[in-house]
Amino acid sequence: MIGQFIRNERDHELIKLAEKHRIELSEHAELIDQEASIPSHIIDNMRLSGLTALPIPEQAGGRSMSLYELVLIQEELGKGESSAALSIGWHLGVLKDLNDRRPWADETYTKLCNDVVNGSIINRAQTEEETGDPTRGGLPATIATPVEGGYTITGRKTFTTLSPHLDQVIVKATCEGVPADFLVAMNLEGVELEKTWDTLGMRGTRSDDLILNKVFVPKSALLETYDKERKTKSLPPAWLLHIPAVYLGIAEAARVEALNFVSNYQPNSIDIPLKDVPHIQDKFGKIALSLVAARHFLYSVADQWDRYPDERMMMQAQLFAAKQQAVSSAMEAVDLSMRIVGGRSLMKKNKLERLYRDVRAGLHNPPSDELTLQVLGMSQFKE
Questions:
Q1: CA distance linking residue 212 with residue 188, whole number of Å
Q2: What percentage of residues in the chain have a pLDDT greater than 70?
Q3: Which of 4-18, 90-104, 120-134, 203-217 has the lowest average pLDDT?
Q4: What ranges do the domains of the chain cover?
Q5: Coil, helix or strand at residue 294
Q6: Mean pLDDT estimate for the chain
Q7: In terms of CATH architecture, what is 2-117?
Q8: What is the 3-state secondary structure (H, E, C) of 169-187?
Q9: pLDDT at 35 exceeding the cut of 70
Q10: Are 182 and 221 in contact (CB under 8 A)?
Q11: What value does the mean pLDDT take over residues 200-216?
């Protein structure tokens, strides 16, 4: 179903690249789920293929990946193994955001681009138990203290996705009363990971706790501050569309699994193929209706972001709504697929059992449904 969203030769090239990785992810899906870990060679292969450098500007060795292309790639990866897709999506999304906004000093950004082209993996570390959902704001409990030559950072971050594979992390900390981002290398003294990730679904993301104990960073590690002016003028987080794209990939995988089942199974209690049973066709119809609406919505919003830069500041409501619609539709598609397959879908050996657990995680990825509805509600009074 993703084929109709391939617009040109470049899209086709990127899908072929993602397809190669999707096949590898699919082959390791059970292992990733069982061990709650992504094998290092999978991430290494993404480095070698150039996938991890796609959002880097072309003049710096990347492909200047658009938001539409990010969504396209992430949906394809999500069909293979969703936790690895979501994990690498954070890396890609962070880089896409930095390319869109260019908030850092040129020298710092140029160095990061060079690092990524040479294989560096990065993510943000924003979430804390004290602050909850980072999209809601809140002052970080992690503290950056100015010292001679730089800063020392102390605190604990939760949900540090892809943690075992990270080379660098963007840490949000409170510095002299103001939230700020700092670039921290994972091999610095005082940086530790605590294995806290033991979850129902998305087990391979390894979103463990990041512990920073008086970690010294130079002055150049201060990337940007989040004062009141920054908050009011900042672009909405379009890069977060990498999240719903993965969940549509999960839904597509579930749909295909259900199709394969009805095409190859016929109980002796009926005298027609299972695919010809009216209530089975009805359920597939509901899946198609739900996914076609969510997919068109998501891709159209991504396309609008790319094509109309002057409208980006006004797109927060659409971006948030596209995420909620995609995740809700994906959960419905997986539920219906399990109804089609029946009790077999609950068994550990059945792919749908894992897809069901993974798709539920979408409820807890940012932005939350409550925040989305609030933003949509407030937008009605601005028209």
A1: 10
A2: 96
A3: 120-134
A4: 2-117, 122-225, 232-379
A5: helix
A6: 96
A7: Orthogonal Bundle (1.10)
A8: EEEEEEECCEEEEEEEECC
A9: yes
A10: yes
A11: 99
Q: Say which residues have a Cβ less than 8 Å from residue 35's Cβ, sequence separation at least 6.
A: none
Q: Which segments within the chain are labelled E, that is strand?
A: 122-125, 143-147, 150-160, 168-175, 178-185, 191-194, 208-218, 222-225
What tokens does 77 get? 């990866």
Q: Give the pLDDT band of residue 265 (cuts 50, 70, 90).
A: confident
Instruction: Decide: 99 and 64 in contact? Cβ < 8 Å.
Output: yes
Say which CATH topology domain 232-379 has. Butyryl-CoA Dehydrogenase, subunit A; domain 3 (1.20.140)
pLDDT of residue 135: 62
Q: Which amino acid is at 33?
A: D
Confidence at residue 233, expressed as pLDDT on a 0 to 100 scale: 67
Q: How far apart are CA 324 and CA 156, in angstroms?
A: 29
| Fold designation for 122-225 | Butyryl-CoA Dehydrogenase, subunit A; domain 2 (2.40.110)
CA 33: distance to chain centroid?
17
| b (16+ CB within 10 A) / e for 240-261 | bbbbbbbbbbbbbbbbebbeeb
* pTM > 0.85: yes or no: yes
